Amino acid sequence: MREPLDRLAGIRTARDHLDEAELDLIDQARQAGATWHQVGAALGLGSRQAAEQRRQRLAAGRRARRVTADRRWPGEVAGLRALLAGLHRWIEADRRWDGRFSGAALTRHTIALALDAEPGALHDLARHVAADLATAGRRLPLPIRAVSRDLHTALSTVR
């Protein structure tokens, strides 16, 4: 009786791993030029909208797992991730972001990676982002400059 229950309990972990792999493959396919319709067809979904919604659900699950995992670490980790998430929202809303400074697109990608990174990598990626933003200086919109200052402060107090 115990063995089936143990195996059943392992399904959640296996499902999480499959969700992570599926999200990564969707992102890779999109980056390689696949349309949402093609992604949906590969997943056996009926529409472009269903494929986009599936990706959103998988990304939300990843964020929830990251928040749960961050609870094992000091509050500074969650604070740093929250700052980067806020910065990411501002950048995603800025249609001119990629042209604001040399390396802006790379900074956007670095932030996206940091949002899902383990704490050590999160800190290292945040330092790279802070350095990139410092070089951009006044070319950044005021809200992004404010978050950049907060990021520098957070990084200077992290031990």
Notes on the protein architecture:
With 159 residues, the protein is an all-alpha fold. The protein has two domains: 1-72; 74-159. It has helices at 2-31, 36-43, 48-70, 75-93, 104-115, 119-136, 142-157. The longest helix is centred in the first third of the chain and has 30 residues, at 2-31. It is flat, with a radius of gyration of 19 Å. 14% of the residues are buried. The mean pLDDT is 91.
Give the rounded overall mean pLDDT: 91
Please tell me how large the radius of gyration is. Answer: 19 Å
Shape type: flat
Strand tally, please? 0
Helix content class: over 70%
Through-space gap between termini: 48 Å
Order of helices and strands: HHHHHHH
Structural domain count: 2
Query: What's the story with the biggest beta sheet?
Result: none
Structural class designation = mainly alpha
Poorly predicted parts: none
Number of helices: 7
Strand content: under 5%
Q: Briefly, what is this?
A:
The chain has 159 residues and is mainly α.
List the helices and strands and how they pair.
Blueprint lengths: L1 H30 L4 H8 L4 H23 L4 H19 L10 H12 L3 H18 L5 H16 L2
Helix pairs in contact: 1-3, 2-3, 4-5, 4-6, 4-7, 5-6, 6-7
